[in-house]
Design goal:
- The complex is a heterodimer of chains A (about 240) and B (about 375).
- Chain A is α/β, with parallel strands linked by helices.
- Chain A has a domain of about 130 residues: Rossmann fold (3-Layer(aba) Sandwich), CATH 3.40.50.300.
- In chain A, about 35% of the residues lie in helices and about 25% in strands.
- Chain A has eight helices and ten strands.
- In chain A, strands 6-7-8-3-9-10 form a six-stranded mixed sheet. A four-stranded antiparallel sheet of chain A has the order 2-1-4-5, with helices on one face.
- With about 375 residues, chain B is of the alpha/beta class.
- In chain B, about 75% of the residues lie in helices and about 10% in strands.
- Classes of the chains: A alpha/beta (about 240), B alpha/beta (about 375).
- Chains A and B meet through α2 and α3 of A and α8 of B.
């Protein structure tokens, strides 16, 4: 089943065209990568998928709902079905990790305080954080921990779909590989579908099932890793040449 | 570099500049001066010969291409690497020229851009006000939506903690105005009129304005900085993706908190400024506090007090909405927080004063 369908999406900032007719789809259970040179609009496309950014033409369908012209009620419903991890975690700096993760549960569910505490502890454990970390503020933890906590918060409502914006950037190689491992584990444990914006070659090889490479306002390639090198595109050739 | 790098021959074909030695930025000025002082450059035909040159750096190459362009000089050179350097300099000049022609803005374009920029920011501010209005409607649709906890938190942050500074400033302003007036009034024995003067000016104008100014400087700027920082760390994006409308969580609680508290702060300011007036009246005009208060309730109508209070919510809305709007305008760099904080204070003070002027005209025409 296709969870995300992007059709002919066009984006422009003023006169600068970023996307000129993008088409792609993400299947259920996939780890899908958005790749491309800097400034090609990967993150912009991700932001469009989660309704942070408007696009000028075309349509994007997420979990069966077209988000181009969506009603506020449907939009809210959709937002509970996905989780987003931002590049720097974007944890709410005035709340502890525990409160960060619990926030959505408190707002959207009628769960008891003790149940929420239990869920938070579980989510922290799932992403590999210690129970004692729950009482720290985002400014007191490292970048790697912040990303893990960000994932824990994104997972709070048990979403089907997870968007990750450069999850391994700014991490040391060991933490980055651990993070790849975590992504794979989460998929097998929770059956998540993930859309990842990344530059990290190791992550690309370790985690991605399929990918779209955006170059020069278009999709230069969509498909699996095996056939990517056959694509005739300068960026793809330089990016993958030495490694395949 | 004593050795002159230049030999000059003047023959009937024109001027031949024969450079030799190392041509670098160290002897560039020397060569320039030499050429200028001797006015060689007025000749029609200049030939620059580089055959005896051992080294040419880019600075000198730029100078030579300059000569080439300005005086139609011809450069003769056979060494490949020099030609390469010269070509580099020529290309750079060309690019510079292209850019120059694009970059030349005339005054109309400049003002046009400024006006259009201001027009766009006005439109986006209108959009913001519209969104606030819609959020208000959604907000009050059900009691459950109202976030009492956030509102109370903001009341404490932006008003209760500002109580001290508002009280102190108002007290001092009351003291100063009364003191200045006392000196003038005593000249013609109109001591008692200090009460009329203080009553009307403080209640109607001074207290609301001072409170608004202190709050704009203290709480309005804090709103901009807080929300701007949240924008940079993508916290606002995170809220949106989680389905928490920032307008309901961040914007409205702040606006509501300020709308509730500004009239109360104005009331405190009234009391403190009057206290300053009473002390001055007692000390320098021999007007006892009880006499002051008797006269106050006799001559100053209660409407003046209400007029001051009514301005509170309007000022509060302006200060809070401009502060938050500026916070939301922060771009992804830290410079922009400072820039927008400054703007937020300046703009909200300006808006408050304009609003006050409008009130003043309106109330006068209404006979209040």
């Amino acid at each position: 089943m296709e969870l995300i369908k992007v059709k002919n999406v066009k984006t422009a900032f003023g006169e600068k065209v970023v996307h000129d007719g993008l088409n792609l789809h993400v299947n259920e259970g996939e780890i899908y990568g958005l790749l491309g040179p800097s400034g090609c609009g990967k993150t912009t496309l991700l932001r469009e998928m989660v309704m942070l950014q408007e696009f000028q033409a075309g349509s994007i369908e997420v979990l069966g709902k077209s988000i181009g012209n969506i009603e506020e009620k449907d939009a809210q419903e959709l937002r509970r079905k996905w989780g987003v991890l931002f590049q720097f975690g974007a944890l709410f700096s005035s709340l502890t990790l525990r409160e960060n993760i619990a926030l959505a549960l408190q707002e959207y569910s009628t769960l008891s305080e003790s149940m929420i505490r239990e869920i938070v502890a579980f989510k922290l454990d799932l992403v590999g954080l210690k129970p004692s970390d729950a009482f720290l503020y985002p400014s007191e933890i490292s970048g790697g921990m912040r990303k893990k906590a960000g994932i824990a918060r994104a997972l709070a409502m048990d979403p089907k779909l997870l968007f990750l914006d450069e999850p391994t950037s700014g991490l040391d190689p060991i933490s980055a590989r651990e993070f790849d491992e975590l992504i794979l584990q989460l998929r097998s444990m929770l059956g998540l579908t993930m859309v990842i914006v990344t530059h990290d070659l190791h992550s690309i090889y370790n985690t991605l099932d399929r990918m779209a490479i955006i170059d020069n306002k278009k999709i230069a390639y969509e498909g699996s890793l095996k056939e990517v090198i056959s694509a005739k595109n300068d960026f793809i050739q330089t990016f993958f040449r030495d490694t395949i | 570099m004593n050795e002159k790098p230049l030999r000059i021959d003047l023959n009937k074909d024109g001027l031949s500049l024969d450079f030799s030695g190392e041509l670098t930025l160290y002897n560039l000025t020397q060569a320039q001066n030499y050429l200028q002082v001797n006015k060689f450059l007025n000749t029609d035909k200049i030939i620059i010969n580089l055959d005896h040159v051992e080294y040419l750096d880019t600075a000198f190459a730029l100078f030579l291409t300059d000569l080439e362009r300005k005086y139609n000089a011809k450069i003769e050179c056979e060494k490949k690497n020099f030609l390469h350097t010269l070509e580099l300099a020529r290309e750079h000049k060309k690019r510079l020229n292209e850019k120059d022609s694009v970059h030349k803005k005339n005054i109309f374009e400049y003002f046009g851009k400024v006006f259009y920029g201001n027009y766009l920011s006005l439109v986006s501010f209108m959009e913001f006000i519209g969104k606030i209005f819609i959020s208000f409607l959604l907000y009050f649709k059900s009691i459950k939506n109202i976030r009492i906890k956030e509102i109370i938190f903001e009341i404490n942050e932006s008003a209760v903690r500002a109580l001290g500074i508002v009280a102190l400033t108002s007290f001092l302003i009351g003291l100063v105005t009364a003191y200045q007036a006392a000196y003038q009034l005593r000249l013609y024995g109109g001591n008692i009129f200090i009460v009329d003067m203080m009553g009307i000016s403080v209640f109607r104008e001074l207290a609301p304005l001072i409170t608004a100014i202190v709050i704009a400087g203290r709480s309005g700027s804090a709103y901009t900085a807080q929300i701007g920082a949240m924008k940079i760390t993508q916290e606002i994006d995170a809220m949106r993706t989680m389905g928490f409308d920032p307008y309901i969580f961040l914007v409205l609680p702040r606006i509501i908190a300020l709308i509730i508290t500004l009239p109360i702060l104005i009331f405190v300011s009234d009391i403190m400024a009057m206290l300053g007036g009473i002390i001055v009246a007692d000390l320098s005009l021999d007007l006892t506090p009880s006499l002051f208060l008797d006269r106050l309730s006799e001559v100053v109508a209660i409407k003046h007090f209400y007029v001051g209070l009514v301005k509170g919510p309007f000022f509060a809305f302006l200060i809070a909405s401009i502060g938050i709007y500026r916070g939301l305008m922060v771009k992804d760099d830290t410079q922009s927080i400072g820039f927008n904080t400054t703007k937020s204070v300046v703009e909200s003070l300006f808006a408050v004063i304009v609003c006050d002027a409008i009130f003043s005209i309106a109330f006068t025409n209404l006979g209040i």
